[in-house]
Design goal:
Blueprint (H helix, E strand, L loop, with lengths): L5 H12 L4 E4 L3 H20 L5 H10 E4 L10 E4 L5 H14 L5 E4 L6 H6 L7 E5 L9 E6 L5 H13 L3 E6 L6 H17 L5 H11 L6 H8 L1 H15 L8 H8 L16
Parallel strand pairs: 1-2, 3-4, 4-5, 6-7
Antiparallel strand pairs: 5-6
The protein binds nicotinamide-adenine-dinucleotide.
The site of nicotinamide-adenine-dinucleotide has 26 residues, from helix 1 and helix 4.
């Protein structure tokens, strides 16, 4: 794993629980220590909730090692990048991985909406590059979107699929396209809900109630936006809009204002709703 934040930590945990030897990298020792502590804390929670036994936790922890040196990926078969959602940073990481990893290693990205093709172009092995898009929280969420570019080989796709299945995930396959399936469809709905609040057409509670009780959604779009993080919603919307230029992906002013004010949803205690 490259990156041991929210997603990298979750993916590393699930891989280790599935029996893989995992190496996670971070940009410095402090972030690495914090990331690894986050994985241990998550496994401890799973033990407390009796989802796994203490011996499983210990075995998973023992399978995870950390590094701050990309060169240490020299013996890896598959590297999944889960650094921040910035194409230049991701392209740089893919260039570094291409130099460090064995010729046959597959390189994957967990990007939410950026171009997997662009990342593949930063390497000399575009046939071995694919997207493996996990969902938060990774141990609980069943879906894995597998993204193929025009250059991804059939062997790479099949190996990626087998790997995802070995983690217990249900797979969907999609061409490299902005937002893939999930974010491409969920993003306009969230943005439309925000536009409805912005123009006073309905209250936040009524919008979410309509979608949960009327359409059987497990969570209304505004509660979902708070859960994802409004900064993440904004970056996904901007990322898709920049490439498709469709007005439905243009971020509403209210979303931009809330992000500028630091009202990011659950993680800051305030978004469309208040959290204590
Ligand atoms: N948060 C979500 O719900 C979600 C869901 C699916 C996909 N994603 C995608 O996953 C990726 C990571 O998102 P996140 O929410 O985990 O972000 P995060 O900020 O929690 O974690 C990113 C981590 O990557 C590290 N990092 C940055 N550059 C690095 C480098 N060169 N080498 C090693 N580590 C580096 C950062 O220090 C940070 O700890 C993004 O591309 C995001 O779009 C996020």
């Amino acid at each position: 794993m490259v990156g041991c934040g929210l997603m990298g930590g979750g993916i590393a945990q699930v891989c280790a629980q599935s029996g893989y030897a995992v190496l996670v990298s971070e940009i410095n020792e402090e972030l690495l220590r914090r990331g690894l502590a986050g994985i241990t804390a998550s496994l401890d929670r799973a033990v407390r909730k009796e989802r796994i036994g203490a011996a499983d936790r210990d075995a998973a922890v023992a399978r995870i090692k950390g590094t701050t040196d990309t060169g240490d990926f020299a013996d890896r078969d598959l590297v999944i990048e889960a650094a921040i959602e910035d194409l230049d940073i991701k392209k740089r990481i893919f260039g570094e991985l291409d130099k460090a990893c064995p010729e046959n290693a597959l390189l994957a990205t967990n990007t939410s909406c950026l171009s997997v093709t662009e990342m593949a172009r930063a390497t000399g092995r575009p046939d071995k590059v694919l997207g493996l898009h996990f969902f938060n929280p990774v141990p609980a969420m069943k879906l894995l979107e597998v993204i193929r570019t025009a250059a991804t080989s059939q062997t790479t796709l099949e190996t990626g699929k087998r790997f995802g299945e070995s983690l217990g995930k249900t797979l969907v396959i999609v061409q490299d396209t902005p937002g893939f399936i999930t974010n491409r469809l969920a993003c306009p709905q969230i943005l439309n809900a925000i536009r409805m609040v912005e123009s006073g057409l309905a209250t936040r509670e009524d919008i979410d109630t309509a979608m949960t009780l009327g359409l059987n959604f497990p969570m209304g779009p505004l509660a979902l936006a708070d859960f994802i993080g409004l900064d993440t919603v904004l970056s996904i919307a901007n990322g898709i809009y920049e490439r498709l230029r469709e007005p439905q992906y243009a971020a509403p002013g209210l979303l931009k204002e809330m992000v500028a004010e630091g009202r990011l949803g659950r993680k800051t205690g305030r978004g469309f709703y208040e959290y204590s």
